[in-house]
Amino acid sequence: MNFITQVTISIVLYFIVRVLVKKPNSLYIASFVSTISYIVMYLVLYQSITLLPTLHFLVTGLSLIILFISYYEIVLLERNVRKIKLGLFENAESFPIERSYKLVFKILGVGLLFLSLALISGFAIQSIFTNNLIIKSSFTIIAWFIYLITLIGTKFFNFPIKYATRGLFISMWAVLFAYLANSYLINS
Asked: What pTM did the predictor assign?
């Protein structure tokens, strides 16, 4: 079973647990189940475990899982906001919207932290500073810059958290696209 299959199985487990558990803390339960399942699958399936490659693949997989979790949570949140704007209060879930945006913003921050750890462990694995690492470094720095600007904007300049979350989400997808496109271009 390869890396992408393990991540996909963990994401599917997240969705299953998230839909089946009808508690207010189902996000935390589903995230925990998803991340633990990925870590266990990785450690069980790979017999030769060395510190840096294992750390690299674990944090890369966890950052992908967190990106998909945040995508799902943003879709749920936006759908609920749309229902409220249309006046469909009986179909809308009752939760504080602003707090949910802040939660997704924090989840994206954790995902960015994992992407940064993946970059650092990638530097440690490769002994040559290649174009591959330069592109990944550039996009990770840009994503951190966007995150810090939005964090400062929300804390000190009353920048709406809704727009900060959306902007950071787009920057995380740009980083992921840079990683995948870069790997595709290098291997082609």
From this structure: 0.76
